[in-house]
Sequence to fold (251 residues):
Amino acid sequence: AVRTGVAVRRIRAVDGGFRIEAGAQGEIHACAVVIATQPHVAAQLLETVTPTGAEAAAAIEAPPLAVVFLGYRRRQVAHALDGLGYLTPSGERRNLTGALFCSTMFEGRAPRGHVALAGYVGGSRAPHLAGLCTGDLLDLARAEFSDLLGADGEPVVARVHRWARGLPQYNLGHARLAAALRATSQEVPGLYVTGNYLRGVSLGACVEQAVETAVRVDHFLSGIERSAKPAPGNRATQRRAPGVAPGGGAR
Fold:
């Protein structure tokens, strides 16, 4: 069963698995635990299980990011939008770190005769810009799309979504941190960490790692089941008094 709306407070390693403190939900016992959260949350959960893993997760930076979604009528945008989007070199000193042409990438992202664009503001290059008010963020995106894509006039749709912690940064020394987190399952059998801060931030990398983690968990749980089964030929036999059925009832 899948339980939603459960806030995990603490994880403790105990004999036979883990005790998970889940607030009003009480305690949950688990044979295996997969932590698939952002690194700062993983650091909090790992603190009571593996301080080494907690320290590694806490060291991974994830600066704030704001995503500005703008929708235009197709005739309002001069650019052909014949690509996935663009990344902005730091030398150009622009306010957007890049943009995606959402309606080009995926069908159904905009009605017929319209286009959908997403601009990214903030990140490690300019984290302070992600904290601008909604109006200022919209102005930044409109100005840049006008300059680079020839977007003219007011957008039909304008939305802003903020992430207090955006994409994890693969800074110098990140490989050491990722290795420490992957090693948690060896340090604490049954504990696994997965996320976009280990092998790549792309959707494909996340799916690949998730599948690998699922396989590792399956192997671990299968090993528990095998060890719990009695070996062939070693099954204990129970002697019963004549006339007594299993369970103690008289025949």
